[in-house]
Amino acid sequence: MSKLQQLTSKVCQASQFITKHGTSYHKQLLEKNKEYIQEPATVEKCQLLAKQLFYTRLASIPNRCESFHKELDYVKQIWKNKQDLKIEDAGIAVLFGLECYAWFCAGQIVGRGFTFTGYYV
């Protein structure tokens, strides 16, 4: 029970800190990054920026595909010459695969609302 009281106390302290310093931090953050703020902040301007972002990302797809194909060709080349592969490189590849799998599992847990239940039959 004392751990719960400690946690509650720390949450209260954090809440008080945010209440006391949150506004000044917000103002400081906006002042520091005012070059990125569009004036006037209208609905039309926000819609224009959203469209610009969408179409800019859409236009970048060919470059991303080209980069992906280069990476894929590199992996194919390594696979063809796997007898020259060092154990360190293989270890890094395995760790990368495990990290991708771990992020996948974490995404599944988040998607289920942070529950660790199995599948229902």
By DSSP, the count of extended strands is 0
Strand portion, in percent?
Answer: under 5%
Largest sheet geometry: none
- Give, in order, the helices and strands: HHHH
Supply Rg: 24 Å
On the 0 to 100 scale, the average pLDDT is: 87
Shape: flat
Classification by helices and strands: mainly alpha
Q: Helix tally?
A: 4
Give the helix proportion (percent range): over 70%
**Distance linking N and C termini:** 37 Å
Q: Low-confidence parts lasting 5 or more residues at pLDDT below 50? A: none
GO cellular component, one term: proton-transporting ATP synthase complex
GO molecular function, one term: proton transmembrane transporter activity
GO biological process, one term: proton motive force-driven ATP synthesis
Organism: Medicago truncatula
Write structural notes for this entry.
- It is a single chain.
- The protein has a domain at 1-38.
- Helices cover 77% and strands 0% of the residues.
- The chain contains four helices and no strands.
- The protein has helices at residues 2-32, 43-59, 61-80, 87-111.
- The longest helix has 31 residues, at 2-32.
